[in-house]
Design a protein that fits this description.
The complex is a heterodimer of chains A (376) and B (188).
Chain A (H helix, E strand, L loop, with lengths): L1 E7 L7 E4 L3 E6 L5 H15 L26 E9 L2 E12 L4 E11 L2 E7 L2 E5 L5 E6 L17 H11 L2 E3 L9 E2 L13 H11 L3 H10 L3 E8 L5 E7 L2 E2 L2 E2 L4 E4 L5 H16 L5 E5 L7 H16 L6 E5 L3 H11 E5 L7 E4 L10 H7 L5
Parallel strand pairs in A: 3-18, 3-19, 10-17, 17-18
Antiparallel strand pairs in A: 1-2, 1-4, 4-5, 5-6, 6-7, 7-8, 8-9, 11-13, 12-13, 13-16, 14-15, 19-20
Chain B lengths: L6 E5 L2 H13 L8 E3 L11 H24 L5 E5 L9 H12 L11 E4 L5 H8 L17 H16 L10 H13 L1
Parallel strand pairs in B: 1-2, 1-3, 3-4
Classes of the chains: A alpha+beta (376), B alpha/beta (188).
């Protein structure tokens, strides 16, 4: 479980520190830094675990991601994660170097319960075994993550646990317009906008039973009767959704199959959100939802949220959910107990605090937010 | 600190809300950023929305006055409430007493409470017609034809002028509107 994030000199975050529990609602005005918080987690995951390489043409780490009004060239990031009977801490310090200017890793370190298990400092990697012994040293390209290149071995099970956890960190902001119903391949994880939903679903169908998932969809989408993958050319599959319309409770004999793209935006998002609930929210996982409620009718968000909360309350699953949202249903359900309020006073850097009703007005969380009274 | 809204509006229907909004716009209050309009149901022709609206105003008044009182220590806050005196026996004092009764004995209205109360008699359309210069009384029904947006805007502008300059006041102005002018001035 992610317990802490520290970010310095990244976009609106200067010396920003935030701690997390098993379930958090991230709230704040537009531009307060909610999406930035998730962006940082995704960047760290992609850079340090998935091995994404910096490109001088994109905005990855250097250049425009540095806080505009800071003169400091160095960016620093830390995450802390509880798991595997200890606490992991990753620290990454980056500045820029070379022509064209590329991010240079000053420091990339992983600690387990205060002891080093990996270090990469100014071009030299130190590999530790599970007994914290500095066993191997070698030089490495300081423009890329060395941690991402470490493979799983029997001597580094502690480090491998951390990398597996981080690789499984999901950040999702469902966008039905991007959700493809065509599966050209199988992928282990959905991307942020669920654009590769069909690829992911194809993978899931090979691995797991989707009975409960389909059962939930039947309850939340009127007329939904099933979903399957059918051949659509060489190596390609296509999602077909079976809908059975009814009138006055009587099923009409005109059931038909639809492409995912033929469903409404809200129906597609529900299909995506319930897939995440059933297949991604598993033991030890951390899921971040950036405004999952977009496109969904008011009555649909409550059942999904209830199931998510039930799942995270289940001690056996021990999963973690962070949700950024403005939705009144989510605010009223979660804000007072689990709300983290992000604010940028004067449009400067992001501050975070526990959500509350500072004047004890007795209003609902959604009303406080609507009036801007939660920030006084 | 970011600035939260400073005015909360509780009223019975959209005509009341419209007059209050136009008045605040005349006062150059930023109605997009500084005003919270509590939910007002649309009027249903032939429905019983009026009684429901009155009941809702009473419930909201209690909740919102408590919230505004609580916030008063941190920032200036004003609760604007409008409720028609649409029965002959009703007037400003009876409506105020009814609202006070809903507060209970524990939290009676105080002189420094952050609220203003408007009680149009017979209803807000009477005030709008009066503010437009029509000859009206407080007994007849002026709901139809419904005032246009332009008429409400003009009425709000005239109320603003009267609230800030008594010399322009028509001496035959209906008493409920005339007596409310000091409260309009409190708004802005």
């Amino acid at each position: 479980m992610l317990t802490r994030l520290f970010v310095d000199n990244y976009s609106c975050m200067v010396n920003f520190e935030c701690t997390f529990g098993p379930r958090q609602l991230i709230l704040g005005s537009n531009g307060a830094g909610k999406s930035t918080l998730f962006d940082v987690l995704a960047l760290l995951r992609d850079f340090c675990v998935r091995g994404k390489l910096p490109n001088p043409n994109d905005e990855f780490f250097v250049g425009r991601t540095r806080t505009r009004w800071q003169k400091e060239p160095k960016q620093a990031f830390e995450i802390e994660v509880n798991g595997n009977d200890g606490t992991y801490k990753l620290r990454l310090e980056i500045d820029s170097y070379g022509n064209p200017e590329l991010p240079r890793i000053v420091k990339e370190q992983v600690y387990f319960s205060g002891k080093p298990i990996f270090s990469f400092e100014m071009g030299e990697v130190h590999l530790y075994n599970d007994f914290y012994q500095d066993k191997i040293r070698y030089p490495f390209d300081w423009h890329r993550s060395a941690l991402a290149t470490i493979t799983e071995r029997k001597e580094n099970t502690k480090l491998s646990w951390f990398k597996r956890w981080f690789d499984g960190l999901l950040i999702v902001s469902p966008d039905p317009r991007q959700m493809s119903g065509i599966a050209a391949q199988e992928v282990k994880n959905p991307d942020k906008y669920l654009a590769n939903f069909a690829d992911w679903y194809r993978h899931l169908r090979q691995e797991t039973d989707d009975h409960d998932y389909i059962k939930d969809l039947k309850e939340v989408i009127e007329g939904f009767d099933g979903m399957r993958l059918v051949e659509a050319g060489e190596r390609r599959r296509e999602i077909k959704v079976r809908m059975t319309p009814s009138e006055n409770g009587n099923i009409l004999k005109q059931d038909s199959e639809y492409l995912l793209s033929e469903l409404s935006d809200g129906q597609r998002v529900l299909i995506g959100l319930y897939a995440i609930l059933h297949f991604a929210l598993k033991e030890g996982s951390t899921l971040c939802f950036d405004e999952p409620d977009n496109f969904i009718a008011l009555r649909e968000i409550q059942p999904w949220l209830t199931k998510v909360i039930d799942r995270t309350e289940d001690e056996k699953s021990a999963s973690q959910v962070l949700i950024a949202s403005h939705h009144p249903e989510l605010l009223n359900r979660m804000a007072f107990k689990e709300g983290l309020f992000l604010d940028r006073p004067g449009g400067r850097y992001t501050k975070v605090r526990k959500f509350d009703d500072p004047s004890q007005t007795g209003l609902s969380a959604a009303e406080l937010v609507a009036r801007g009274w939660e920030r006084e | 600190m970011s600035k939260g809204i400073g005015i909360v509006v509780v009223c019975e229907d959209q005509e009341q809300q419209s007059l209050l909004l136009r008045y605040m716009e005349t006062c150059r209050i930023n109605t997009s950023r500084d005003v919270r309009l509590t939910y007002v149901p649309a009027r249903i022709e032939g429905g019983k929305s009026k009684d429901a609206g009155t009941k809702r105003v009473k419930e909201m008044f209690v909740k919102e006055l408590q919230a505004c009182r609580a916030r008063q220590a941190k920032a200036k806050t004003l609760l604007i409430t409008m409720i028609d005196a649409d029965r002959e026996k009703w007037n400003y004092d009876t409506r105020k007493s009814e609202l006070e009764a809903t507060l209970g004995d524990d939290a009676p209205l105080k002189i420094d409470d952050p609220y203003v109360l408007f009680v149009p008699k017979r209803h807000v359309e009477t005030w709008i017609r009066a503010a437009l210069g029509s000859s009206v009384n407080e007994i007849d029904d002026y709901k139809k034809p419904m005032p246009t947006k332009e008429e409400i805007k003009k009425a709000a502008n005239n109320i603003y002028l009267w609230a800030h300059d008594n010399s322009t006041l028509n001496p035959s102005l209906i008493p409920s509107l005339k007596n409310s002018l000091p409260d309009w001035k409190k708004v802005g």
